[in-house]
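Predicting holo structure, zinc ion bound.
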Amino acid sequence: MKKKQEKKLNRSRDYYRHHRERAIARKVHIYTNIMGNDLMEYRNGRDFPTFRGRFSKGKVHCSCKWCKYEKHYDLEKEKYKAKKNQMKKEIEEYVSEWHR
Ligand SMILES: [Zn+2]
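Done. Tokens:
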């Protein structure tokens, strides 16, 4: 059996550095300015700076009403609304073909 060929992405180290840093910056912003932590950690009886690289993995959420607008006001997200409308249209088309 032939092995499925994987598509190779030729992306430079600079590309990955840029996007890693971008993701870290977003999470550090939430962690410090919104959750109100400072970037220091208490270990072995001493304060150490938190390694920023820690935020390259995992998730840091913000659930304020600006970030989770639809949830706060109990609205339907635009992408689901569009999908629903499309499905409705298809059903209507199918039914209209029946009644010819
Ligand atoms: Zn927020």
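The mean pLDDT is 88.
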